[in-house]
Amino acid sequence: MGHYPAWPGSQSALRVACIFNAKVGDADANPYLVSSKFTIHDFSNVQYHNGAARTVTGTTAGSTLTITGSTADLGTYVNRPISGPGLAQRQFVKSIVGAVATLSEPVATAQGTAQSFKIDNSNTRSVNDGVTNATTTITSAKANFTLADNGLSVTGTDIPDGTTMTFVNPTTATLSAAATASNVAQVLTFGGTQDVITGKINSTRTANDGTMTATTINSPAAGFQPSDIGLPVNGSGITQPCFIHTIAGATATLSSACATAGGAGAGVFTIGDPTVTAATNGESALTQQVQLDLSPALVAGSGPCSADESEGFGIAGTWLNPGSFVGGGFATQPAGTKAIGEIQFKTSVITYGAYVIERKAATAGDPIGAVHYDIVFPNVPTTIALCSSATSPGLGFSIGIPATTPSVAGLGTGVGRPGTAQLRSTRASTTGAVTTIFITSDDGIHTWAGSEFNRLCGIPAGTPDVNFVCGDG
Hints:
Blueprint: E1 2-4, E2 13-20, H1 29-32, E3 38-41, E4 46-48, E5 53-61, E6 64-67, E7 82-83, E8 93-97, E9 100-103, E10 111-120, E11 125-133, E12 137-139, E13 154-155, E14 165-169, E15 172-175, E16 182-190, E17 205-207, E18 211-212, E19 216-218, E20 233-235, E21 244-248, E22 251-254, E23 269-271, E24 284-292, E25 311-320, E26 338-346, E27 351-359, E28 372-377, H2 382-385, E29 395-401, H3 406-409, E30 424-426, E31 433-441, E32 454-459
Antiparallel strand pairs: 1-2, 2-29, 3-28, 3-31, 4-30, 5-6, 5-10, 6-9, 7-10, 8-9, 11-12, 11-16, 12-15, 13-16, 14-15, 17-23, 17-26, 18-19, 19-22, 20-23, 21-22, 24-25, 24-29, 25-26, 26-27, 27-28, 31-32
């Protein structure tokens, strides 16, 4: 189990490979026999796609967007990246007054008919007109600095790692460390280290523990943050439009009486729309290669179980964003959780799924105490696929999650919120990290424990090395 590359702030792919003793009646089978329900507890310094969006409709001209749909709870959407038809790169909202949003620069191509645009739930943004002076002062005519920027990280070619900023005026900020050179027309990014793990920015997610009244949703799993205000809420019994108006602990107050208690699917709701940098539905987001003695009862034409001969096959899991999840007996989201994505596997005989779950700190029963992500396989059809035999050749699988997907990799530079154009990445750090990945059985029968089921990863601070030292086989 390990990931590569393993360097702070970089896109990173995960690989987990296991071989199991599957002999029926073998004394070693009970602790090691493959489970049909298991979880990969990913390294705590890993970030899966982070962010959520509010979709608005409107027309553009000059430096303005005139919104034609609902503007409820959009008043705080200042300095948030906006993406859509005809917009320039690195464009963000400078202000919203009524139905008119003023943008950070003129649009590239005006849109005279109503189009859809996505506004991110974060003031993380970048500019391409930064001026550094080999001092602690930076300037940018486009940046629209505000007091809300105090403490945000600043990154750029001439900016030392770990630098933060303090507001001076709309075009000027003070750095915590002096720039290393004097330059103009620099690309500078503000707030790129904000994410779920820092407790600042939530992702689009589906939670399944909601209790609703006409105007509120209570959900301990949802992990509400101020950045959720203004995001849409969708689900059974929720009429549209419906947005989050205020947050108080585990309770969100809605923009209107748009929720209905009870009914089919009650308690399951989705917060936010996928951002422009999120993977799109149907993209390959996980590959699973399997070697096992495949039962002809499941797949006609497979070799007889008595032959004890293994077959091999591979399958691609495709991404589904929150709001598009497909459930069922082999793809049920774990109770009391928030999921930022489902990975669906379709075969000729059965469909099953896995979920990317955001875990809070000190989650009961989880081997990782810090905030992190789990990839939960609630019901893999292993039992019905595997021949039952006292001389079984065993079972092996290799699971890989890519760092990015084709649609995300193809985005232009400066599109969407900076630092989110990946499916999986290591978090930015100036101090390095030592973390552990675990794989556990969840079926209540088999216990996967010990060094065979976890791997330590140490990522040093300083200049990166090209190596494979993070985890091993």
